[in-house]
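Thread: quick sanity check before group meeting

JM: Hey all, I'm pulling together slides for Thursday and realized we never actually wrote out the predicted structure for the chain we discussed last week. Dropping the sequence here so it's in one place. If anyone has concerns about the input, flag it before I start.
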Amino acid sequence: MQRKNVILITSDQFRWDTLSCNGSKDVKTPGFDRMAKEGITFTNAMSSNPICVPARATMTTGNHSHKCTGRKENAGRIKDDQLKIAEYFNSYGYETYKYGKFHYVPYQKDRIVHGFKHWEMTESGRLVNQEVKTGKDLGGEDYFKYLESVGYPNMARAHGIGNNDVHAGLSALPLEHFVDCWILKRTLENLKKHLKEKQDKPFFLWMSFPKPHSPYDPPEPYHKMYDPRKISKPAGKYEMLFDKNPELRLRQRRYGMNFFSEQGVQLSRARYFGLVSLQDKLVGELLKFLKENGLAKSTSLLFAADHGDLLGDFGIFFKSCFLNGSVRVPFLISSPFLKKNGMKSKDLVGLEDVFPTLCDLAGLPAPQNIDGRSVISQDLPKREVYISQCNETPNQLYMAFDGRYKYCYAECEGTEELYDQKNDIKEIHNLAKSKKHAKIVKYLRNCVIDWCKNNQDTMMLDKKGKLKKSVLKEIDEELTYKDFTSYLGWRKY
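JM (edit): ok, ran it. Output follows.
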């Protein structure tokens, strides 16, 4: 029987609409488009929790974050009783590899890899930063060790831009030493080694890019690939946030975005697009390698992201909400075993589906009793509503999406939002208070309540079984430049 290899490609903070196969008119993505032409594009794919750690925990276990880590925020170690994807593939005789960003709490300090046999990590300098602060050797990050070996010690962040900073810049590194390029390099080198030493064994490989997450710092020549004067502008204005989740207004000030000029926003968007194009080129090189080394006919690929980036929509950046720029994710499958070339699916899918889908692509039975389902299975009924969760009390968020209408609930002030995705993809008009849409609001609200009850998320419900409501004070206070700098992820190295 032919052994079926699988490769999972993930990106951090990758907007669904920056793919030209998803309709982008700003960014050219021939590599990802090739995957789409040779497989399936899921146009209604959502993050199960649009924050890095919980989203990755969900991909790893197939379970929602409040189950697999006990948390819905950017924290929480995956519980020991959770089945992890690499462990599962190991049990079926697969050789398992992961290169790039792991982002499992507690990050790299304890070198938690959840079953991968071969791996090299980068955590965007988090451990290096701890070493600088404590003066202790905590083991280092593999990518930063690599930079030191090629004469660029700690130069990844020499521009001084923070990890959660909205400002753009130019990488101090040559292209060949940039982090995403290093990940592809180590991926291909280890695939060559696998073909030489273990060609009788199938492999599961996870190639995990840290970009295009901020800092928006593409290397030459990608930093000038897009003219900030000619690309599209963000959706909406800051003033439109006043009928949305109130916490978003606090975020704008917390990260100093109210000090950011319109031109600065456009520059950051242009540099972000440059990072996307660089990553697209690397995916194209991976596809070329698979073909040239006889792996294309035995290897399936799945590409997804943990969440998106608002990129200036409504005056804010980053994720952690259910606006499309944050919660929608790319979800592409390319497989020689599927006769679905160029197909676009409107099925409701999410990150909990990654694990069982990869099992299906490998010809393995999916684990029992997990939240996810294979998106290529013909035996399962289609989802009628997709539910996503985010954050802890008093800022818990939930979303219910039926393929047309998206309902969002914020515990803060009990705020409700409803958007017609057919006629208002930019989510300008909140229809939650419209009498015409009262029935759909009630229906989707009840979907969230029922989901929370069925999935034991008791923290979201009050004693009467209704959605919790809390008060966030002093949302619109003015902050000074000094107040918000601690949130930007600035580091000394």
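AS: nice. Residues 5-381 form a domain with the Alkaline Phosphatase, subunit A fold (CATH 3.40.720.10). The CA atoms of residues 77 and 399 lie 24 Å apart.
JM: adding both to the slides.
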